[in-house]
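Replying to the earlier thread about multi-chain prediction with a worked example.

Input:
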Amino acid sequence: MTVTAVRELSFGQAINEAIRLEMRRDPTIVVMGEDIAGAGGRAHLGFVDAWGGPLRATRGLVSEFGPDRILDTPIAEMGFLGAGVGAAMSGLRPIVELMFVDLIGCCYDQIMNQAAKMHYMMGGQLDLPLVIRTAYGTRGGENRTYGGGAGAQHSQTLYAVLAHIPGLKVVVPSTAYNAKGLTISAIRDNGPVVILEHKFLGLSAKGAVPEEAYTLPIGRAEIVRRGHDVTLCGIGRMTHICTEAANALLSEGIDAEVVDVLTLSPLDEDTILESVSRTRRLVVVDEDTPVCSVARDIAARVADKGFDNLDAPIKTITAPDTPVPFSAVLEALYTPGPAQVVSAVHELFGTGA
Amino acid sequence: MPSKTTLSSANAAAGLSRSFPPREKLLWMYERLTLIREFEERLKWLVETGVPVGAVHYYTGQEACAVGVCAALEPADWIASTHRGHGHCIAKGVEVHRMMAEIYGKTTGSNRAKGGSMHVTDVRVGMLGVNPIVGMGVTHAVGAALSAKVRKTSQVAAAFFGEGATSIGAVHEAMNLAAVWKLPVVFICENNGYAQATPVEYAVSVTKISDRAAAYSMPGVTVDGQDAIAVWEAAVTAVERARRGEGPSLIECMTYRYYGHHQGDDPHRYRTREEEEAARERDCVRRFREQVLAQDLLRAEELDAIESANRKKIDEAVSFAEASPLPKPADLLTDVYVPAPQGERE
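Result:
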């Protein structure tokens, strides 16, 4: 495709632009969620667009598309996700925002029993063009030494409980560029897609983004750095941690390849297996807790299908098997960082401390 | 705006100077009432003779609710249903041979054997799904109503649910959403007295579920759910209000399920035979027949002809289901993910 103009956008701005461009193209797209605009119904008092979602990804949309398509909801995750499912069954293409993935307990049935299964249990008679956007992750690693983060109920990385469900596509962008492309692909997809947006990236990541609408394939991982000694496989923000580790390892003469998983389900096994077949070593880095995690699923698949290509055991680096702590010091320890990745690579090569 | 008083007084007047639907509608109603009855009775017989159809929840006894409401709807309108959904499907126009084949687990079924009794769906006739997770269908009807509003069509959605579902949060969230967004949806609570084996008076904090409508600033009315004409009358009022853009309504239909919760449930472990007999005295099919004959609206011969045509239709549905093919092993893996649109696939 031809790209004519590229600017720097934040991760949140890139998602905003994706939604805006698609809404201009397709009048059946609506956005629903808590305070996606804010100040609902108070335009007559001069209050509009008071909030804009946790990553400000929906700010300004209500001014262009109006309150009939940018729908601030009551606090009713089960209700409005259900309305999203019903609307997707009957002619709309809803984008529903679940403010934080930690709130999934309030609406999980709509995602895992309703949205994910509709197409299958109805014998394929029905498409379900539903996008669920949700913010995830800790802010650990910001180098703060006092105070704390958002705590155990507002900091989780609960994507394994989504990737576990057949029928859901689960996407975790890592840059402003791929956030825009994957969001557009998700909106155009005729099935349910969940997009997990990392809070830390949403508020801090910036990158070059073309002005036009473009899509990136759901179900495709990307090799973001070529190397031949070890594959570092990252998800979302952890891809950046992998890249930082790869930079550190280079000074020791270890040339790491970095794979950005991007889609957790359906997982692009081929790209990961192909990378491992060249590097013969694998470290998977995942911000989720370890039990039944995507990290261990990737490790299991590579052990199953690529064992003969491995020269060393597969390493997984995850958060510890604990809730997310509040304290900034503990949160930084909780969140996987580049030092852990470097140390895992040392183990694979039998070097280091 | 039709208030609770207007609806109630309309019902109080029922039997004296009540309104009746036109003749064609009455014929359609009797055809659907008896088709549902025949379908369920035949299915029960099949189950009892050992046909392995999986879990089924008979609608027998409640037919007037589905038929009365669907008589007030247009083909383009939507309904969402519950686990006890066969009656809703038939009333909205799902073909009985495709339903029977689905319940038999055959590939010619409405859901190609991927759904069964608890998921029968036919979006072509506006039937958004039987849904056995209690209360969830209500939220989907609200979503369909939102779709109608955003797309500026005149469609209305009706949400069927039992009195048991009024205890689940999703239903209240859905009602509040519908009320604040003034959505064209009608909430139909079929109060059959039992959530599985739990009696309504134990589990529901109000004596009249329609009183809950006040919490969402919508009209609420309780009608005799064994009287298809009374249900139709209340539904017409609610549907008209919805189409005018004035928002949702709640109709509580007092009804009764003749059998247990599902095919394996013995209801005599939680209710008396006397109560069942009293309910059967109010049988909705017989009452409808008596009313239209007494008022000279339809003739006995045409009602008999409808019944025998329906028996034949169900005979054919069963033969069709029995003769239809079972799924192939490869069908296990189809239709898991909705395909991306053409041109987006790389």
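Chain B touches chain A through 54 residues (CB under 8 Å).

Feel free to reuse this layout for your own posts.
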